[in-house]
Amino acid sequence: MVKPAPAKLLFLFFFLYTFNISTAQDSARHFFTKGYYNISMDRLAAIEYLTKCIEIDSLYTDAFFHRGICFFKEGLYESALNDFDRAFALNPDLPIIWMYRGFTYRNMGMMDEALNSFSRYIIHNPKDTTAYSYILKGKMKYELGDFSGAVEDYDMALKLKPFEEKYQYYRFTALYESESYNKALKAVDRLTKINPDFYGYYFYKGNIYSKLNQLDSAIFMYNISIIKNYHNADGYFFRAQAYQQKGDLKKALEDYNTAIELNPDDGSYYSKRGNCKFQKSDMTGACEDWQEAGSRGYYEDFDKVKKVCK
């Protein structure tokens, strides 16, 4: 008959068992801590420490998550996605992982996957009051050419942060690109109320009025833009085009000249000035400007050189 193990042996076995588990947990925690604090200083060292942590404890969710962030920052996107997947499998209550997956896919140029990931983040975290998730989702839609969809997401962000200038600007650009000019005009009106001193918003108003063929209003807005920043060459350049559309070629030519003085390297300035000179029957001046535009890499009107110029 086998005698039962003495109580002291049972105690020793239990002690050693629990000691080994405790020691392994301490070691995993130790390597995780070292890895975590190296993320901002030495990511390769952080990856090494976090890997050791995972080798000891393959269920250490935070180690996978933070190693994934390290891989992402190192440009190792496939490895990052693998770690994010593993972390999410271990803890589905970490919706922030979807945000990082979105960043990773975006950097890989996989915009549809990025958009889907940002959408999943919002689904898992609908009470996110930072509005950033909606902005990221809107940006992805914008880059994919879905300007109306981008506006919808920017609207959601602005419900959370209605006075955030940057978010209002994103919404304006999406409306402008979707050619919703009347809505874009209202959007930029809000921007001028938030920041009335920024010349760019008046410049954008001028562009919208030009698109709507309201040339006097466009010129008025370009005037304000130039008053607020008379070094901005585009203000003169676009006002010149508005004057040219009105048929005031003298003022248009003056503005083209000023724009070129401020920014002599932009080929489009010479090309448009050439068109203005052509309308004034200055063939020599027009040909010189078209050729100058071509020498600076701008060829939109260069075919006129062959047709008009000797």
TrEMBL record:
<dbReference type="Pfam" id="PF13181">
    <property type="entry name" value="TPR_8"/>
</dbReference>
<feature type="repeat" description="TPR">
    <location>
        <begin position="61"/>
        <end position="94"/>
    </location>
</feature>
<keyword id="KW-0802">TPR repeat</keyword>
<feature type="repeat" description="TPR">
    <location>
        <begin position="131"/>
        <end position="164"/>
    </location>
</feature>
<dbReference type="InterPro" id="IPR050498">
    <property type="entry name" value="Ycf3"/>
</dbReference>
<dbReference type="Pfam" id="PF00515">
    <property type="entry name" value="TPR_1"/>
</dbReference>
<feature type="repeat" description="TPR">
    <location>
        <begin position="95"/>
        <end position="128"/>
    </location>
</feature>
<dbReference type="InterPro" id="IPR019734">
    <property type="entry name" value="TPR_rpt"/>
</dbReference>
<protein>
    <submittedName>
        <fullName>Tetratricopeptide repeat protein</fullName>
    </submittedName>
</protein>
<keyword id="KW-0732">Signal</keyword>
<feature type="signal peptide">
    <location>
        <begin position="1"/>
        <end position="24"/>
    </location>
</feature>
<feature type="repeat" description="TPR">
    <location>
        <begin position="233"/>
        <end position="266"/>
    </location>
</feature>
<dbReference type="InterPro" id="IPR011990">
    <property type="entry name" value="TPR-like_helical_dom_sf"/>
</dbReference>
<keyword id="KW-0677">Repeat</keyword>
